[in-house]
Amino acid sequence: MKKLGVAVIGTGFWGKNHARVYKELAETELIAICDIDPERAKNVAKQFGATPYTDAAKMLKNRDIEAMSICTWSTSLAKEATRAVEAGKHVLVEKPMAANVKQAEKLFKAAERKGVHLTVGFLMRFIPGLQQIRKAVENKAIGELVCATAKRVSQWPERIGDVGVVKDTAIHDIDVMLYLFDEDPIAVYAKTGSMRYKKFEDYSQIMLTFKGGKSAFIESNWLTPYKTRILIVTGSEAIMKLDYITQELTIEDAKETVQPRYPWQEPLKLELQHFANCISKKEKPLITGLDGLKALTIAESALKSSATGKIVKLK
Q1: In terms of domains, do 210 and 275 share one?
Q2: Strand 238-243 vs strand 228-235: parallel, antiparallel, or unpaired?
Q3: Is residue 160 predicted with pLDDT exceeding 60?
Q4: CA nearest 311: which of 171, 191, 165, 212?
Q5: Are residues 140 and 155 in the same domain?
Q6: Which conformational region is residue 79 in: left (phi greater than 0), alpha (psi within -120 to 50 degrees), or beta?
Q7: Are residues 197 and 248 in the same domain?
């Protein structure tokens, strides 16, 4: 089977991982990488056997490239992704998809108009344990879903500089809640602040409310001296807990506590393999551009709620 020709724009820490995985996958052929830093572009391209570019517009003229990952700074994601879409390329754009909702809407509409596949890098959905929780919620294996709580805290990441913790970090958990509840929240209330980093918020607590009294709580920060990535889902009959880092899943009910064993899998590899198969094999996408737009809309509503001290109702 013909391999899907792919490229990566932005080869910092995460973009370099995209290049590595594309090189490892049987479904893809890494053709090119692009970075504004000529030396980095040259080094990463050499490492993974690709052609280096510093001009994305020039790279987009390469007809062998059918799809690409956009892994630039958050404030330039939408610009690069929209340019790729307009060139007829399928796109995986890293979260938060765009600097703001207006940019995200433009990108989403461009992809629809051009008829190309657009997905957003919400990596958590590809962790096997989260897939099991989603199935348990759907099948009511834990009874009725009552609430879910996410905790995503760690020390200050040096790579961040153009968005705060809500759009960079909490947005992962916003998407997870939309995925688990399988419906849009009706309101959001949030508290955010800047303890060490004054340009953007470095901690946040977000509450999402859904129809029927269900709720979700999200805590994120860049302050805690150790890294924690936890999801707890409470049902009327059982509680499920997932450690995103170890991928360990725990299920507790009235009779027992069990820990199903699943082989650890690299979420990025699963994500990029799925991206390739959505294009080559027409698989149903797990994440769409609309999912990215919804998550970013809620993230901005959370920031608005914190700024005004009021609940923000969602359409």
Answers
A1: no
A2: antiparallel
A3: no
A4: 191
A5: yes
A6: alpha
A7: yes
Number of domains in the chain: 2
Is the entire prediction scored with pTM above 0.90? yes
Domain interval for residue 241: 124-263+296-313
Question: In angstroms, rounded to a whole number, what is the distance separating the alpha carbons of residues 123 and 152?
Answer: 14
Residues 116 and 183 in one domain: no
Q: Are residues 210 and 247 in the same domain?
A: yes
* Count helices and strands in the chain by DSSP H and E runs: 10, 15
Task: Tell me: do 244 and 205 sit in the same domain.
Answer: yes
- CA within 13 Å, CB half, 18: 30
Termini Cα distance of the chain = 44
Tokens of 117: 């596949």
Q: What is the pLDDT of residue 156?
A: 78
Q: Average the pLDDT over 145-164 and give the result.
A: 87
Supply 18's token pair.
């995209």
Both structure tokens of 103? 């940019």
CATH classification of the domain holding 224: 3.30.360.10
Distance CA 74, CA 99 (A): 6
Supply the pLDDT for residue 1.
73
Confidence of residue 162 (pLDDT cuts 50, 70, 90): confident
Environment class of residue 252 by beta-carbon count within 10 Å: exposed (0-12), middle (13-18) or buried (19+)? middle
Q: Do 116 and 209 sit in the same domain of this protein?
A: no
CATH of residue 281: 3.40.50.720
Q: Are strands 90-94 and 67-70 parallel, antiparallel or unpaired?
A: parallel
- Do 304 and 179 sit in the same domain of this protein? yes
Q: What tens digit of pLDDT does each residue of 215-268 get?
A: 999 999 999 999 999 999 999 999 999 999 999 999 999 999 999 988 899 999
Q: Give per-residue pLDDT as tens, 44-67.
A: 999 999 999 999 999 999 999 999
Helix axes 13-24, 38-48, angle to 10 degrees: 20
